[in-house]
Structure formats: C-alpha cells, structure tokens
Amino acid sequence: QVQLVESGGGLVQAGGSLRLSCTASARAFSNYAMGWFRQAPGKEREFVATISPTGGTYVPDSRFTVSRDNAKNTVYLQMNSLKPEDTAVYYCALGPGVFRDERQVTSWGQGTLVTVSS
User: How far is CA 30 from the centre of its chain?
Assistant: First the structure.
C-alpha cells in the first residue's frame, strides 16, 4: 500500500504563490507517474497536472508547474499568480503511467487546503 503525504497548503492573497509537496512511500518511486487534482466545495474533483517517470509533464494551466525529485520521493506543484477560483483541496496522486483523469490513479494523498483570498 502506497502512502502519499501532501504539505504546503495555506492561505495566500490573490496574485501570490504557493509550492505544494507530496512525498510517497512507494518503492521504485521513479517508475511511477505522479500528479495533482483539486476539489472545490460543491464541485467534482478536477485534474491539475501530471508528470511522467521520465519527467514529461502535462499542465493545462500555464500558471502551474509540476516537478519531481526522485532522490526524495517527492513531487511538487508550484502555483503562481493565484486566483480566488483556485481555492480548493489539492490532492496528490500516483499511477502506473501519465494520467489526465482519475481512472489511472492507484493512490491518493489526504489533501491539503489552498485558500486564495481576494
């Protein structure tokens, strides 16, 4: 059973930045795709970013950057120019390959709350 632990959430003003971290217990971490989803109150969970075992990324929002440090078993989500509509619980995810929805996710973190004030 893989455990994912997120950190870095908090309160930030609109236009500010946050860097989220997620550390995985998985053996051979570098063989897994990682990513991030978010869920705002009353809304469905939505895809944010993914990064392949070799470092390829897909991040629809240009304000966000995903990266990984395999030596630390950690994936990061750098969020810049934050807007109030970015307010959500952000979830770290792990899967056998790159994903753009929940279907290929095999492990989830507990979530970390990001609140962007206006």
Answer: 16
